[in-house]
Write a structure and sequence with these properties.
The complex is a heterodimer. Chain A is α/β, with parallel strands linked by helices. Chain A is 41% helix and 15% strand. Chain A has helices at residues 5-11, 17-33, 51-65, 94-109, 120-123, 138-146, 157-166, 195-208, 223-236, 257-267, 285-294, 313-318, 321-327, 357-367, 376-383; strands spanning 38-40, 43-46, 74-77, 134-135, 168-170, 184-188, 212-216, 241-244, 251-255, 275-278, 303-308, 330-334, 351-354, 370-373. In chain A, helix 2 (17-33) crosses helix 7, helix 8 (195-208) runs parallel beside helix 9 (223-236) and helix 8 crosses helix 10. Chain B is α/β, with parallel strands linked by helices. Chain B has helices at 24-27, 63-72, 87-96, 105-110; strands spanning 3-7, 10-17, 51-54, 79-82, 100-103, 116-120, 125-126. Chain B is globular, with a radius of gyration of 13 Å. The chains are: A alpha/beta, B alpha/beta.
Chain lengths: 385, 127
């Protein structure tokens, strides 16, 4: 990879330890993807905020980094482990709360916009088409490339961080128009057309595809199904983008009822559950509004946690949704999400009901609980009265 | 065999081969180095102190922090050999100073479990 003189000297440590580290990351990912140069990016979205995911190693790393590092471009962040307003209602370890707050402070010290959301594409105004960004949250990277017409690779927590610190990223893969062309088509042939099926389709496609995949048999998706597709895809593979319609080149494979069942059997490990979780990815205003309508006159038989970005809290309150959701027995939590939340503890919970394929994967592998996967309508039908 | 250097360094140890790709977040316990995804072919094995060989990293972007945590908790692989280096694995290794190389398919397939090798990610060779 060719670096400018300025970039070479930053890599050599002439502009401090922080920039040297950031350029070391950029050079490694440049080598990995065969990039030939660095290019400017306008917006970094960072993952690696939840103490459950980054641990003491991550907390100390960020604390050290924040001593002199400052973000150069617009930088937003993923959810953390809990909602500070309601954390006292959960029996969380003091140590966890302390470490999580320290992580938050480190990010804020470096100049982050405290969004704590995995759906930056839904709560921020988007830059113009074709803008290069660095999204280190898999569902957000896929959504940005496929729906928002932005350009990003499926960044890692560190490569997005390197972008935040330098305002740059490598020019390769999905940042280059040539790399955005799919070389595999998946034909959607499953009978069901709900968000769960699209999540399973995403999980299947992510396993099969390279960087970019074409999906045929789908013309348009509502936001819920689309987010579910992006999140499922981000969980199982390295694919960072999809397009609708048949691809011009490459193999074509079917996603039919049999394939759908295979994926579902891998992720669905329980017949029912003790707790319901909605919101991986977090729910935006449109989904909250729709959910409130669906729940009218009904109430959950079990605890139901709904995860949202803080950015829409005011609207949720002003429009009366939080009151109505509360009456339906659901609690709305901000700044956090299903994935690796300490709010679901296997000491108290055996299995969780969710419509999120991504949530199902991490609940099972990380929280160690079983999961009952069903679509939202089925959850409402079976779990409310 | 000649390999492509992604993160420089040198390490000697026994090979641990995975057939499946690795999702570090969720798939690997960051405090012990144990593979905890029960659908993974290395389920129950420990990656610490091994030359870890797997096709590519997948899934969560936060997996890069898992690699860093493995190093911090002294249960990281000594080096990693991939068929295709992905951004998560490359950046995680870069921050953690874990040598990372990419091998050609036929060379990659010749690596066997338990085999003692030296990954020389300075000269670009596996011996």
């Amino acid at each position: 990879m060719e670096l400018t003189k300025e970039e070479e000297s930053a890599l050599a440590g002439k502009h401090g330890e922080t920039l040297a580290l950031a350029y070391r990351i950029l050079v490694a990912i440049g080598e990995a993807t065969g990039a030939d140069k660095l290019i400017p990016v306008e917006w970094a979205h960072l993952s690696g905020v939840n103490y459950n995911t980054i641990g003491d190693a991550g907390e100390e790393f960020l604390s050290h980094l924040s001593k002199d590092a400052k973000f150069k471009i617009k930088t937003t962040v993923n959810p953390m482990g809990f909602d500070s307003d309601s954390v006292s209602k959960f029996e969380l370890d003091e140590e966890f709360i302390k470490k999580q707050q320290r992580i938050r402070q480190s990010y804020e010290k470096m100049g982050v916009i405290p969004s704590f959301s995995c759906i930056p594409y839904e709560i921020f105004e988007l830059p113009k088409k074709g803008t290069q960004v660095s999204f280190g949250e898999s569902n957000a990277a896929i959504y940005a490339n496929s729906i928002s017409a932005l350009k990003t690779n499926k960044e890692s927590a560190f490569s997005a961080l390197a972008s935040a610190l330098t305002g740059k990223n490598i020019y390769s893969d999905l940042r280059d128009d040539e790399g955005r062309k799919p070389n595999l088509t998946i034909r959607m042939k499953a009978t069901q057309k709900d968000e769960l099926t699209y999540g399973l389709l995403g999980y299947f496609a992510g396993k099969e595809a390279g960087s970019s995949v074409a999906i045929s048999g789908v013309n348009e998706l509502d936001r819920r199904s689309c987010k579910s597709l992006c999140a499922g895809m981000g969980t199982s593979g390295s694919c960072g983008m999809f397009t609708f319609g048949e691809g011009e080149k490459g193999e074509k494979i079917d996603f039919d009822d049999k394939e759908m069942k295979n994926v579902k059997d891998e992720l669905n490990t329980a017949e029912s559950g003790d707790v319901i979780t909605l919101g991986s990815p977090q729910l935006g205003l449109e989904e909250i509004s729709d959910l409130t309508i669906k729940l009218k006159g009904r109430s959950f038989r079990k605890r139901c946690m709904i995860f949202c970005p803080r950015a829409i809290q005011g609207q949720i309150r002003n429009l009366g949704y939080d009151k109505q959701l509360g009456q339906a027995g659901a609690e709305v939590l901000y700044d956090c999400c299903i994935c690796l939340t300490p709010l679901v503890d296997k000491e108290d919970v055996d299995s969780v009901i969710t419509n999120s394929v991504k949530g199902a994967y991490y609940l099972r592998t990380s929280n160690g609980v079983d999961v009952n996967l069903k679509n939202l309508d089925q959850i409402i039908q079976e779990e409310t009265k | 065999m000649n390999v492509k250097i992604i993160v420089r360094g040198k390490a000697k140890g026994a090979v641990l081969c995975a057939e499946n790709p690795v999702n570090f977040l969720g798939g690997v316990d960051k405090s012990t180095g144990r593979i905890r995804d029960e659908n993974h072919d290395l389920f129950g094995k420990f990656v610490g102190g091994k030359i870890l060989v797997f096709p590519k990293g997948i899934g969560s972007s936060v997996g890069a922090y898992t690699i860093y945590s493995l190093k911090y908790n002294k249960c990281a692989p000594l080096a990693i050999v991939c068929l295709k280096a992905d951004i998560t694995t490359a950046s995680g290794c870069a921050i953690s100073n874990i040598p990372l190389v990419v091998a050609e398919k036929k060379d990659y397939e010749s690596l066997k479990d338990g085999q003692e090798i030296t990954v020389d990610a300075i000269e670009g060779k596996i011996l």
